[in-house]
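2024-03-11 09:14:02 DEBUG pipeline.ingest accepted 1 chain
2024-03-11 09:14:02 DEBUG pipeline.ingest length=59
2024-03-11 09:14:03 DEBUG pipeline.predict start
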Amino acid sequence: MKLVSRFEAASRSTAELHGLLGEAQRAFACAARGSQERRDALATIRNIEDELAIRPPGL
């Protein structure tokens, strides 16, 4: 999975972020331990969750 940066997450809609979050969670679960793909998926999850946390509810 491609790493989603904080900047990229900020430019996406909330609905898009929820979709990407699901993809990142699946990629994390399927990736081998210690792999770059797993690290990228985890960083993506963190970036998306951080962005969702600062958005007002309902947007």
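2024-03-11 09:14:41 DEBUG pipeline.report The CA atoms of residues 20 and 48 lie 8 Å apart.
2024-03-11 09:14:41 DEBUG pipeline.predict end
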